Amino acid sequence: MNDAMDSAPTPDEVDDNSEALAALFASPLFAGPDPSVVSDVQSHEEAEATQWVEDAEVYARVQQIYTAIVSRAPEHKVQPSLDRVRRALDLMGNPQESFRTIHITGTNGKTSTARIVEALLRERGLRTGRFTSPHLSSVRERISIDGQAISATDFVQTWDDVEPFIDMVDTESQAAGGPRMSFFEVFTVMAYSAFAMAPVDVAVVEVGMGGRWDATNVIDADVAMIMPISHDHEKWLGHELTDIAFEKVGIVKPGSTLILAPQDPEVRAMAYEQAHRVQANIVDNFEVLSREAAVGGQLISLRTPAAVYEDIPLAMLGAYQAQNAAAALSAVEAFFGGAALPANVVEHALMSTSSPGRLEVVKSSPLVIVDAAHNPAGARVTREGLEEYFPGPRVAVFSAMADKDVAGILTELEPAFHSIVLTEMVGDRAMDIDELQEIAVDIFGEDRVRVETELLDAVAAAVDIAETVDPDAIAPASVTVLGSIMLAGHARELLGASIVDMESHA
């Protein structure tokens, strides 16, 4: 018999030991947790596990819904009719008529301005909805309630609410030889439904593309905003600035107030003509009186039709953001009948507003900035902001969509960067890397262009280059990822930035 068997206890010894252990555990010397506490802890853990499973199912459902919607005609493909959106909303009882609206178009600055407008409205105690596009990380960013992306549960519920009506309109349209509702048309209907169900007092709605035929333009907004118009989406909106402006001024409706940002003289004349045609009020007498860079943003003084607002902290970078703030402030004044806003409302709103993906610092060491500039006008203001706030050696990481004016964008950026690292994006719209390299070499010169197909490799290469340009530079070297909103969103995710809860990447 081996040693283990020799030392094994007899059955009687086992019984004696069990009784002794039971007595010990029951004695004050071994006071364990109260059984009811143990039960509570177990119940809590079971509840958490159940909730985790339920959440995972909801997030999976969000992804499933998004995949189904994105299979429709893409948002950049304009379908010149509002009939499908109007029909769907009419079947639903016209939810868009249950709240007031501020409608924003223009080429650049729409999303940042929408965020500022919404913050000002919330500071005045109103419940808000915000519809913007495209998204950076999660599709749920497009529909926000009270400044927060719609929850996954509410996103699913909204889709369940509108799906029967979308199906009905699809069937009717296809029976008449027309298309199904597009990606953007569906999301517009979802947004208006979600805002009505919340319910919100006012919605801040950003045009997807153009204005006149944009799916959002089924609303009759109290205030229409036309931000600076420049060349973009020329394949769909036209090559001449006046062609683009013609589409955008179409959001100005009878009896509304038009907030008109500084424009090319021809564009300004067209906006005035549209406003007079529909008897809309025009507000364009607002301006930035002064601004100075400050840590994390800038200190600005603004003049609007109602007041002068002095030394207001704005938590966003760049002169263009100060101009956006002036327009946003004028819009909210108009929304409330033209009266000046309390100084504390303005200060709290502008201090709390951020605009992810717009001159956004996503890492401080090494210094990495993400910007969504995707047209020459956007590239110009980005370059100016970088030169003001980040004077150290700069290297760009760049990619772009094939339908963009890449040569125009790179020409604007070239003076601000020591060199540029090109990378690839997924999707049919992305520009071929060889074509991108050819354009970049023509503008930057071969010695200043490098190619890294993977984004993380491109950022790492750019950091290496930036840090060796001038080791003795007083200001830190920086890397800026830009050229596409999709690229900006991908960079934010890879580098750890987040807008909504990161459980969902739908």
UniProtKB/TrEMBL annotation:
Domain of life: Bacteria
EC number of the protein: 6.3.2.17
Reactions it catalyzes: (6S)-5,6,7,8-tetrahydrofolyl-(gamma-L-Glu)(n) + L-glutamate + ATP = (6S)-5,6,7,8-tetrahydrofolyl-(gamma-L-Glu)(n+1) + ADP + phosphate + H(+)
Position of the signal peptide: none
Top-level EC class as recorded in UniProt: ligase
Domain Mur ligase C-terminal: 357-468
Keyword tRNA-binding assigned: no
All copies of domain Mur ligase central, residue ranges: 197-331
Protein keywords: ATP-binding, Ligase, Magnesium, Metal-binding, Nucleotide-binding
NCBIfam families reported for this sequence: folC
Family: Belongs to the folylpolyglutamate synthase family.
Identification of the protein by name: tetrahydrofolate synthase
Classification of source organism: Bacteria, Bacillati, Actinomycetota, Actinomycetes, Actinomycetales
